[in-house]
Amino acid sequence: MRAQFVLSEIGVGLRRNLTMTFAVIVSVALSLALFGGSLLMSDQVTQMKGYWYDKVNVSIFLCNKSDAESDPNCSKGAVTDEQKKQILTDLDKMTTVVQKVTYESQDEAYKHYKQQFGDSPLASSLTPDQMQESYRIKLKNPEQYQVIASAFNGRDGVQSVQDQKGILDNLFGLLNGMNWAARAVMAMMLVVALMLIVNTVRVSAFSRRRETGIMRLVGASGFYIQAPFIMEAAVAGLIGGTLACGFLLVARYFIIDHGLDLSHKLNLINFIGWDAVLTKLPLILATSLVMPALAAFFALRKYLKV
Q: Which part of the chain is the ABC3 transporter permease C-terminal domain (predicted)?
């Protein structure tokens, strides 16, 4: 009987404040969709880092005859065979840092350049002897670039030491900035949702103050009086959370798999899978249920004074 009364009061409360209930549902749905989206964005950035950093190489570019005439780092002339052997020997000794070393000759560098930039006007004027020999180094930990840089920068025969990780860091910095912006919007939406929940509960309690007063006089417990209002907020929040889950599923389906079809158009990006999305849904649903219930509970403690 008590459960039936509580459920009937929930239905009455939701219908009585239909406009504010709708506003609560929409704000909770949008804020939790942003919450889930920011979590998925973090997972995507982490996965991309693991994928791309694993392919990062450090390149030691060696001086050629052209560099000896124009580059201050090569003022002592083109790299000699002895200097190349010494560089390779030193790299072989760095077993705790270096995973693999690949040598690229001038002819190989010229061939790779023609493959990538063969249509550019500059490509037709270049010759193999103008290209640089290099050592391409695969690190065990991409964060240890400075170990290589400090060991070989400024050495005779070395024109420069370049790290591809720096290019990726700029990209990931941009993605992280976008993620934090989404979190800021999410936080504002959550505040708006909480304010709407509190106001909705208070309006509902005020409209039924006569009933609650009678219940208080006949000795009803505080929890029994508060339960319908708390459940109203929880039900509205749960509906909003369900919509947020739907938004995330639809977004994953149409943006990555179909519609925009980014998984095929941007095949260089290793997108997160469905498992990453599905694991976030229980957290979103739990948040949508607990957050409104707690907001209503604390709002009613002061308002009803039971």
A: 185-302
- Which H/E stretch holds residue 31? helix 18-53
Give the containing element (helix H, strand E) for 229: helix 222-251
Return the structure tokens found at 101.
Answer: 């070393």
> Which tens digit of pLDDT belongs to each residue from 116-173?
666 666 666 777 878 888 888 888 877 777 888 888 888 888 888 887 767 667 777 7
Both tokens assigned to 225: 């009086």
Question: Contact 76/156 with Cβ under 8 angstroms?
Answer: yes
Cβ pair 58, 150 in contact under 8 A = no
Single-letter residue type at 305: K
What the block records as the tokens of 124 is 């037709």
CA dihedral 301, 204, 24, 43 (to 10 degrees): 30
Give me the residue label for tokens 């849904």: 281
Asked whether the whole model's pTM tops 0.90, one would answer no
